[in-house]
Amino acid sequence: LVKKMATQDIDAAVKMLKNTVDIIKANPQLLHTPQMKFFKEFIESYGGHVPDPAEQKQQDSAPKSSGTARGGSKLDDIDDEPMPQASSSTAGPTVEEVSDEEEEKEEFDPEVVPHDEADLPEKQKNGDSSKEPSDQDYEAASTAKAAAMDAQSAGDFDKAADHWTEAVIATPSAMVYANRGLCYLSMRKPLAALRDADKALEVNPDSAKALKLKGKAYAMLGKWAEAAHELGQGQSIDYDEETYAIEKKVKEKHDKQIVIENHNKERRLKKEKERQEKLRQQREAGAGFPGGMGGMPGMGGMPGMGGMPGMGGMPGMGGMPGM
After folding, report:
1. Residue 32 CB neighbour total at 10 angstroms
2. Which residues does residue 49 pair with via DSSP β-bridges, in sequence order?
3. Could you tell me the pTM of the whole model?
4. Do residues 167 and 141 lie in contact, with contact meaning Cβ atoms separated by under 8 Å?
5. What is the DSSP secondary structure assignment for residue 239, as one 8-state letter?
6. 3-state secondary structure of 86
7. What are the distances in angstroms from CA 179 to CA 53, 81, 208, 236?
8. Which residues, listed in sequence order, are joined to residue 296 by a DSSP beta bridge?
9. pLDDT at 55 exceeding the cut of 70
10. Rg (CA), the chain
11. Which one, of 5, 10, 80, lies nearest residue 321 by Cα?
12. Which residues face 302 on adjacent strands?
């Protein structure tokens, strides 16, 4: 019985030693750790050569030859068997191989203006709202408004915006700002229209025209949630059927956007779960390697290293027949 137990201990120790050698082959620098000093000395006591880290680095960077010289006893001579390589069927896919479905996007909307085309070459000029307009200012504003209306009727919104700017400088009212903003909207410059809407709301926070302008500008930028909010605010102050039709369309777009965002959120969560599952499988595959790294006490907690049965006290080690 004692003999049988001793044989089992030796078999277990040899198996663990073989696994340890495989690990060191993959990471020779481990031989230079204090925990492995005894093993390094054991190799050198039989004429083996353990290269220092600098020498090992040089060897790693040198081109690999197809054959191995047998003149000297190197670390690889301890075990002539090649290290087992994980096959594609057992290794499992890496994290990068996890399915990466393309996120769903909103359909192209020709009414939405790209951000880089949504503004004027230069920001529009504004009036001084702290200044009290004179009679001449009111007269100039009246003339400019008439000219702006004529230009708008002719479909010349650039010219109309210039005349509204004259009126804004003379008498900066919420109505004038909103009218100029509508011209910018017709020119498909929603960012300029937003600025005028904000200026109008500074003068009169309850301007329904400015709120509706702001909602329409957001809609032209594809910002459906913001558009729905501003249009709703304007409609609550001054309802009109034309704005209602726009508001209804915006809400439909907003609802569809929410559905797409929810689908994409579900995809991202699914992708993250797949990624976590692959990481778990890879960790388990590493932990399942006999004598695997990460579980051996004595080498950062690897079982067998420093506490391996037979090492330092194993029957036959140092005087074992055939060593």
Report:
1. 14
2. none
3. 0.54
4. yes
5. -
6. coil
7. 77, 85, 12, 20
8. 302
9. no
10. 39
11. 10
12. 296
